[in-house]
From TrEMBL, chain A:
Keyword set includes Nucleus: yes
Compartments where found: Cytoplasm; Nucleus
Protein name according to UniProt: Proteasome subunit beta
GO terms for biological process, alphabetical: proteolysis involved in protein catabolic process
Keywords on record: Cytoplasm, Nucleus, Proteasome
UniProt xrefs under Pfam families: Proteasome (PF00227)
Quaternary assembly: Component of the 20S core complex of the 26S proteasome. The 26S proteasome is composed of a core protease (CP), known as the 20S proteasome, capped at one or both ends by the 19S regulatory particle (RP/PA700). The 20S proteasome core is composed of 28 subunits that are arranged in four stacked rings, resulting in a barrel-shaped structure. The two end rings are each formed by seven alpha subunits, and the two central rings are each formed by seven beta subunits. The catalytic chamber with the active sites is on the inside of the barrel.
Family annotation (InterPro entries): Ntn_hydrolases_N, Proteasome_alpha, Proteasome_beta4, Proteasome_bsu_CS, Proteasome_sua/b, Proteasome_suB-type
Family: Belongs to the peptidase T1B family.
Signal peptide region: none
A GO cellular-component term linked to this record: nucleus
Length: 244, 236
């Protein structure tokens, strides 16, 4: 009896699949991360879902973590690869602290490090299957950047990963402005997260909002958003066209 | 993970559909999510479709295929009703669905659950999965979300339930599937069919019971942060 071997197409440039470890496709994935600059620093939001294909398998996954004193990292994509990145960053921060020279890595430096890691892995055809959002404040300077699994990186006043690019960024382009208050920033992020909840299949209704300022970072407790379904068109959608 | 959204992916009703008999009729239930790839194209679709006054069908799989099959069967049943001079039976409706599903099995991708009430056999549920098998069942589940319901229904379905018990079971089942199946979501719609007629119900997502690891919905994080602090625990 033959075992079913997993197949590569004939024209594939990928080497033998038995090659050590490479993420060929993601297994447990997180969906969008959305972030924006506001008056005092950066606000970032992400839901707590870990999907296993189309199953919403894990519902308490923390996809945003503080890095050092000045940064916050949010990730979408393969959760195990995110955990690996956190491990690399632990080492990076440790070595930085061991210098004990009064200097500490700021968000711009961490972002650059991540970009190099992601791009080098991509060049070896063994990517870390994540899209990352890195935000922080150092010496009054706010910084917000993103890196994708193939090493595309840039900074902006507001960034998002995955579906957030399609659904949240247009809202942010309209409604973001310089010097948003904390309340306005939170409300704007919640508006984006609600749309994602309606329209992204892998979104779940449990999220956290993280904030980072010169003083430090906080990640909120998990909470859920109210959703709106009481439209007359929703109660009777097929009224004019039975069977549609 | 920023793969381009495939907007040309076929509209598919990921779906959870269910039909249950009780002592007097049937209750049909479904979620309301229609997706194009990972995008939710319609968050409030109606997957329980009328075939005749007394027979409805729950649609799953390809939205286009299920719509066209039910449109044809509605048309045939209309003619059949005129010819026979009385309401069509559930069995006839189910068999017409089966005829189309079976003879076009290579081209269609739709699983259907036919449910209704007629004066000869009372409430009946027929499952017609991919391939066009016709199978009469006391209850039927279908769609991608149904994977999460086999164990639940094996334990919870009982012979001879009342109308309210049956409807509560259906709403609970669809709601549980929505909690775990990314392809199901939105509102829970139910249709109850018995000798007295047809009743449609609508349960919005925020009115459903909370399951494991789900939290009470809030207006905003700001409300939580500004809430008065909870009282200190007693020091015993």
């Amino acid at each position: 009896m033959q075992f079913m071997a997993s197949k590569q197409p004939e024209n594939s440039l990928l080497g033998p699949e038995s090659d050590s470890q490479r993420t060929l496709y993601p297994y447990v994935t997180g969906t969008s991360v959305v972030a924006l600059k506001y008056k005092d620093g950066i606000l970032m939001a992400a839901d707590m879902g870990g999907s296993y294909g189309s199953t919403l398998r894990y519902k308490s996954v923390e996809r945003m973590k503080p890095i050092g004193k000045h940064s916050l990292l949010g990730a979408s994509g393969e959760i195990s690869d995110f955990q690996e990145i956190l491990h690399y960053l632990d080492e990076l921060i440790l070595y930085d602290n061991m210098w004990d020279d009064g200097n500490s890595l700021g968000p711009k430096e961490v972002h650059n490090y991540l970009t190099r890691v992601m791009y080098n892995r991509r060049n070896k055809f063994n990517p870390l299957w994540n899209s990352l959002v890195l935000g922080g404040v150092k010496n009054g300077q706010k910084y917000l950047g993103t890196v994708s699994m193939i090493g595309v990186n840039f900074e902006d006043n507001h960034v998002a990963t995955g579906f957030g690019n399609h659904l949240a960024r247009p809202i942010l382009r309209q409604e973001w402005h310089e010097n948003l208050s904390f309340e306005d920033g939170v409300r704007l992020l919640e508006k984006c997260m609600r749309v994602l909840l309606y329209r992204d299949r892998s979104a779940i209704n449990k999220l956290q909002i993280a904030k980072i300022t010169e003083e430090g970072s906080t990640i909120s407790q998990p909470y859920s958003l109210k959703t709106y379904w009481e439209f007359s068109a929703f109660a009777n959608p097929a009224q004019g066209a039975v069977g549609s | 993970m920023d793969l381009n959204m495939n907007v040309n992916a076929p509209h598919s009703m990921g779906t959870t559909i269910i039909g249950v008999t009780y002592n007097g009729g049937v209750v049909l239930g479904a979620d309301s999510r229609t997706s194009t790839g990972m995008y939710v194209a319609n968050r409030a679709s109606d997957k329980i479709t009328q075939l005749t006054d007394n027979v409805y069908v729950c649609r799953s799989g390809s939205a286009a295929d299920s719509q066209i099959v039910s449109d044809y069967v509605r048309y045939f049943l209309h003619q059949h009703t005129i010819q026979v001079g009385q309401p069509a039976t559930v069995k006839v409706a189910a068999n017409l669905i089966r005829l189309l599903s079976y003879s076009n099995k290579n081209m269609l991708q739709t699983g259907l659950i036919v449910g209704g009430w007629d004066k000869y056999e009372g409430g009946k549920i027929y499952g017609i999965p991919l391939g066009g098998t016709l199978i009469e069942q006391p209850f039927a589940i279908g769609g991608s979300g149904s994977s999460y319901l086999y164990g639940f229904l094996d334990q919870a379905w009982k012979e001879g339930m009342t109308k309210d018990e049956a409807e509560r079971l259906v709403v609970k089942a669809v709601s549980l599937a929505i909690a775990r199946d990314g392809a199901s979501g939105g509102v829970v719609r139910t249709v109850i069919i018995n000798s007295e007629g047809v009743t449609r119900n609508f349960y919005p997502g925020d009115k459903l019971q909370l399951w494991h690891d789900e939290l009470e919905p809030q207006n905003s994080l700001l409300d939580i942060l500004n809430a008065p602090p909870s009282p200190e625990p007693m020091n015993i």
